[in-house]
Design goal:
This protein is mostly beta strands and 123 residues long. Helix content is 0%, strand content 61%.
Length: 123
């Protein structure tokens, strides 16, 4: 079982910045891709950014140039640096981790989600 704990959300004015953290703990062989997703009220959950274990990144068009995803593999932690925040960035932000686990003698991939952290951009 893997636990993901997010932190860093809050209320910020338009144009401001926030940094989200996602710490993974538990039993796993490795963490593959980590990602951030968000869900605004009345909308579906959408991808914000992902980062592979090797550091390759992918961003939603809406956040390119404003958000930066990074990770510390030694600490099993992913970060999302958000700048130039807009009211439309308001959402609950969720961390996701694609992990490899050993179940008996079989390796398998499992997907885990954090509990979410609220980001509100408002004046």
């Amino acid at each position: 079982q893997v636990q993901l704990v997010e932190s860093g959300g809050g209320l910020v004015q338009p144009g401001g910045s926030l940094r989200l953290s996602c710490a993974a703990s538990g039993r796993f062989v490795s963490i593959n891709t980590m990602g951030w997703y968000r869900q605004a009220p009345g909308k579906q959950r959408e991808l914000v950014a992902t980062i592979s274990s090797g550091g390759s990144t992918n961003y939603a068009d809406s956040v390119k140039g404003r958000f930066t995803i990074s990770r510390d593999n030694a600490e099993n932690t992913a970060y999302l640096q958000m700048t130039s925040l807009k009211p439309e960035d308001t959402a609950v932000y969720y961390c996701n981790a694609d992990t490899t686990n050993l179940r008996g003698s079989v390796y398998r991939r499992d997907d885990y989600w954090g509990q979410g952290t609220q980001v509100t951009v408002s004046s």
